[in-house]
């Protein structure tokens, strides 16, 4: 699956005559490398990145002193540090860190793409974007590349999706068995969290669960409300990792 996904990215890069793609979105990094590290934290603190060249060379930037987390992944050719250039991490030296990283990207492009300065980027801090552009790199939309790469699944991915759905159904069954009149919405929602982690999931995107009169309008999040007999309970799983997103309704009593 790892090799297949890497080749899917390479195919999309070559189709667009791109020299490579630079990824900061942790879900895109996971797709390209199968590596994870503090996934929720790095969604809003861009301290991890990866570069994939049109020839398939894969470089990962991880949080400092975390190189060992990807040591078991043979497709990653290099693990580096220094992809952090956001204010919480780098303060008034943000431009300095961004300049250093941009120069690194320029050098990598030259080595692995020759004269091709066309680089796709999915998400990046504004300081890094500006510094890369100042070096004459032509920047393109990396989200499009990754969406098209993911659009075709192989047999391993389909089997993984089936496994995720089965795991989610087990978690939902545990929720159903624990749901009795007198329990709170938050009590029920906490079971989904526990079952997600127990089966190798990573996090839950939302906390959409409501009961009784709170089920309409939709999109209300779980709270301390006590569920009563005969009421409708509705929720959306939104599990990330090994699990799947499912919407369902239950009736108590």
Describe the structure.
The chain is an alpha/beta fold and 253 residues long. The protein folds into two domains: 2-150, 3-Layer(aba) Sandwich (Creatine Amidinohydrolase, Chain A, domain 1), CATH 3.40.350.10; 155-251, Alpha-Beta Complex (Creatine Amidinohydrolase), CATH 3.90.230.10. Helix content is 43%, strand content 16%. It contains nine helices and eleven strands. The chain has helices at residues 2-15, 26-33, 39-44, 87-90, 94-113, 126-134, 142-150, 155-178, 185-198, and strands at residues 20-23, 49-53, 58-61, 78-80, 118-121, 138-141, 203-204, 209-211, 232-236, 239-240, 247-251. The strands form three sheets. Strands 4-3-2-1-5-6 form a six-stranded mixed β-sheet, with helices on both faces. A three-stranded antiparallel β-sheet has the order 8-9-11, covered by helices on one side. A two-stranded antiparallel sheet has the order 7-10. A hairpin with a 4-residue loop joins strand 2 (49-53) and strand 3. The chain starts with a helix and ends with a strand.
- The chain-level mean pLDDT equals 93
Main sheet makeup: 6 strands, mixed
Order of helices and strands: HEHHEEEHHEHEHHHEEEEE
Number of helical segments? 9
Across the major sheet, the strand order is: 4-3-2-1-5-6
Give me the Rg, rounded. Answer: 22 Å
Look at the structure and name the CATH superfamily of the largest domain.
Creatinase/prolidase N-terminal domain
User: Share of helix among residues?
Assistant: 40-55%
- Helix and strand content put the structural class at alpha/beta
- The separation of the N and C termini measures 44 Å
What is the CATH class name of the largest domain? Alpha Beta
CATH fold assignment of the largest domain: Creatine Amidinohydrolase, Chain A, domain 1
When the domains are counted, the total is 2
% residues in beta strands: 15-25%
